[in-house]
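Model it.
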Amino acid sequence: MSEAIESPETRTREAEHLADRYLALWNEADPERRRRLIAELWTEDGSQILQPPQEMREIAASPGIGLVATLEARGYAELEARAATSYEHWVGSEGLSFGRRDDAERLGDVVKFHWEAVDKGGEAFGGGLNVLVLAADGRIERNYTFVD
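Modeled.
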């Protein structure tokens, strides 16, 4: 039996829905709800690989060190700690919220979208690009985050 071919509109709606659920996690104040969202979004051994800030990359690449700096959270416990720390700093302390731009796309098992961190007045504070590699069940296996 052959699989039905998804239309570009369906793939876009699915990508937007996943991006919205993903960003809801980072805006979520309730630790129990964050825990449930992580289990719904990621596979058990899923990971987030984060491009660190430019300053950290420069230090890592400096003469005598010669490393590429990468930050990774793997598995539910590390993802929960990562989400809690991000929420406490950016949303709780700084008053920012995360939202997606209108460019979510899916191609095969990959979803990509840009996001923004905005303050209470709607002013953009920063943003980045997320690339999500999905497992067969549609949950995230790898999440690559590039911060602008």
